[in-house]
Write a structure and sequence with these properties.
150 residues; alpha+beta
Length: 150
Protein backbone atom coordinates (compact mmCIF):
# COMPACT_ATOMS: atom_id res chain seq x y z
CA UNK A 1 0.00 0.00 0.00
CA UNK A 2 1.26 3.46 -0.82
CA UNK A 3 2.05 5.95 1.89
CA UNK A 4 0.26 9.24 1.30
CA UNK A 5 3.27 11.40 1.99
CA UNK A 6 5.59 9.97 -0.64
CA UNK A 7 6.94 12.77 -2.81
CA UNK A 8 9.47 11.07 -5.04
CA UNK A 9 10.96 12.49 -8.23
CA UNK A 10 10.56 10.61 -11.49
CA UNK A 11 13.56 8.45 -12.31
CA UNK A 12 15.20 9.54 -15.56
CA UNK A 13 14.17 7.44 -18.56
CA UNK A 14 17.35 6.59 -20.49
CA UNK A 15 17.60 8.29 -23.92
CA UNK A 16 17.39 5.05 -25.88
CA UNK A 17 14.16 3.94 -24.15
CA UNK A 18 10.52 4.94 -24.45
CA UNK A 19 7.69 4.55 -21.94
CA UNK A 20 4.34 3.78 -23.55
CA UNK A 21 0.84 3.66 -22.18
CA UNK A 22 -1.66 1.14 -23.56
CA UNK A 23 0.37 0.59 -26.72
CA UNK A 24 -0.13 -2.87 -28.17
CA UNK A 25 2.75 -5.10 -27.19
CA UNK A 26 3.31 -8.72 -28.09
CA UNK A 27 1.80 -11.08 -25.53
CA UNK A 28 4.80 -13.30 -26.20
CA UNK A 29 7.14 -10.47 -25.16
CA UNK A 30 5.23 -9.95 -21.92
CA UNK A 31 5.30 -13.66 -21.11
CA UNK A 32 8.97 -13.90 -22.05
CA UNK A 33 9.80 -11.04 -19.65
CA UNK A 34 7.67 -12.61 -16.90
CA UNK A 35 9.51 -15.91 -17.39
CA UNK A 36 12.95 -14.22 -17.31
CA UNK A 37 11.91 -12.69 -13.98
CA UNK A 38 10.80 -16.08 -12.60
CA UNK A 39 7.17 -14.92 -12.51
CA UNK A 40 4.12 -16.86 -13.63
CA UNK A 41 3.37 -16.59 -17.33
CA UNK A 42 -0.21 -16.44 -18.62
CA UNK A 43 -2.13 -18.17 -21.37
CA UNK A 44 -2.24 -15.71 -24.29
CA UNK A 45 -6.05 -15.62 -24.36
CA UNK A 46 -6.23 -14.83 -20.63
CA UNK A 47 -3.42 -12.28 -20.82
CA UNK A 48 -5.14 -10.49 -23.70
CA UNK A 49 -8.38 -10.37 -21.70
CA UNK A 50 -6.48 -9.07 -18.64
CA UNK A 51 -4.95 -6.26 -20.72
CA UNK A 52 -8.33 -5.31 -22.18
CA UNK A 53 -9.88 -5.34 -18.70
CA UNK A 54 -7.10 -3.24 -17.17
CA UNK A 55 -7.47 0.49 -16.68
CA UNK A 56 -4.07 0.91 -18.28
CA UNK A 57 -0.69 -0.72 -18.66
CA UNK A 58 2.79 0.66 -19.13
CA UNK A 59 5.65 -0.74 -21.17
CA UNK A 60 9.24 0.40 -21.16
CA UNK A 61 10.85 -0.44 -24.50
CA UNK A 62 14.31 -0.10 -25.95
CA UNK A 63 13.78 2.21 -28.96
CA UNK A 64 16.13 0.47 -31.39
CA UNK A 65 15.54 -3.20 -30.62
CA UNK A 66 11.96 -2.73 -29.36
CA UNK A 67 12.84 -5.14 -26.54
CA UNK A 68 10.41 -4.99 -23.64
CA UNK A 69 12.43 -4.19 -20.50
CA UNK A 70 9.68 -3.39 -17.98
CA UNK A 71 5.94 -3.84 -17.67
CA UNK A 72 3.07 -3.20 -15.24
CA UNK A 73 -0.70 -3.25 -15.62
CA UNK A 74 -3.21 -1.43 -13.42
CA UNK A 75 -6.78 -2.26 -12.45
CA UNK A 76 -9.15 -0.25 -10.30
CA UNK A 77 -12.68 -0.22 -8.95
CA UNK A 78 -12.57 3.53 -9.79
CA UNK A 79 -13.47 4.45 -6.23
CA UNK A 80 -11.29 3.11 -3.48
CA UNK A 81 -8.62 0.79 -4.87
CA UNK A 82 -6.04 0.65 -7.62
CA UNK A 83 -3.86 -2.43 -8.05
CA UNK A 84 -0.58 -2.92 -9.88
CA UNK A 85 -0.12 -6.36 -11.45
CA UNK A 86 2.61 -8.22 -13.33
CA UNK A 87 5.28 -5.73 -12.31
CA UNK A 88 8.51 -6.91 -13.93
CA UNK A 89 11.75 -5.59 -15.34
CA UNK A 90 14.61 -7.12 -17.26
CA UNK A 91 17.02 -8.83 -14.84
CA UNK A 92 20.38 -7.13 -14.52
CA UNK A 93 22.04 -4.10 -13.02
CA UNK A 94 19.30 -1.72 -14.28
CA UNK A 95 16.34 -3.80 -13.06
CA UNK A 96 15.56 -1.64 -10.04
CA UNK A 97 15.72 1.53 -12.16
CA UNK A 98 13.34 0.08 -14.77
CA UNK A 99 10.90 -0.95 -12.03
CA UNK A 100 11.10 2.52 -10.47
CA UNK A 101 10.27 4.15 -13.81
CA UNK A 102 7.07 2.17 -14.44
CA UNK A 103 5.98 2.31 -10.79
CA UNK A 104 6.47 6.08 -10.56
CA UNK A 105 4.57 6.71 -13.80
CA UNK A 106 1.75 4.33 -12.77
CA UNK A 107 1.39 6.17 -9.45
CA UNK A 108 1.39 9.53 -11.26
CA UNK A 109 -1.43 8.39 -13.58
CA UNK A 110 -3.45 6.87 -10.72
CA UNK A 111 -3.19 10.03 -8.63
CA UNK A 112 -4.31 12.16 -11.58
CA UNK A 113 -7.06 9.92 -13.00
CA UNK A 114 -8.18 7.89 -9.98
CA UNK A 115 -7.76 10.32 -7.08
CA UNK A 116 -8.47 8.93 -3.64
CA UNK A 117 -7.67 5.33 -4.54
CA UNK A 118 -5.31 3.45 -2.29
CA UNK A 119 -2.67 1.63 -4.32
CA UNK A 120 -1.57 -1.94 -3.80
CA UNK A 121 0.87 -4.03 -5.77
CA UNK A 122 1.48 -7.70 -6.40
CA UNK A 123 5.21 -7.80 -7.05
CA UNK A 124 8.30 -10.00 -6.87
CA UNK A 125 10.83 -9.62 -4.07
CA UNK A 126 13.35 -8.00 -6.41
CA UNK A 127 11.07 -4.93 -6.63
CA UNK A 128 10.85 -4.27 -2.88
CA UNK A 129 13.61 -1.60 -2.85
CA UNK A 130 12.13 0.27 -5.81
CA UNK A 131 8.65 0.09 -4.30
CA UNK A 132 9.83 1.39 -0.92
CA UNK A 133 11.64 4.23 -2.71
CA UNK A 134 8.29 5.13 -4.29
CA UNK A 135 6.50 5.26 -0.95
CA UNK A 136 5.06 1.76 -0.64
CA UNK A 137 4.86 0.07 2.76
CA UNK A 138 5.20 -3.68 3.13
CA UNK A 139 2.01 -5.11 4.68
CA UNK A 140 0.91 -1.87 6.42
CA UNK A 141 -0.85 -2.47 9.73
CA UNK A 142 -0.46 -6.22 9.20
CA UNK A 143 -2.64 -6.22 6.08
CA UNK A 144 -1.92 -9.28 3.94
CA UNK A 145 -3.06 -9.65 0.35
CA UNK A 146 -4.57 -12.41 -1.69
CA UNK A 147 -4.21 -12.92 -5.40
CA UNK A 148 -6.04 -14.55 -8.26
CA UNK A 149 -4.00 -16.45 -10.82
CA UNK A 150 -4.93 -15.65 -14.44
Amino acid sequence: MLGLNSANKCPQIPEDFVLLRNEKVSLRKINRLLARCNQDTHQPRKLELALKSSDFYLTLLHKTSENLVSFVRVTSDKGLNANLWDLVAEPGDQQEKYISIVVFKAIEIIRRELPGCSISVAAPLISISALKANGFLLDPNGIKTMGFRL
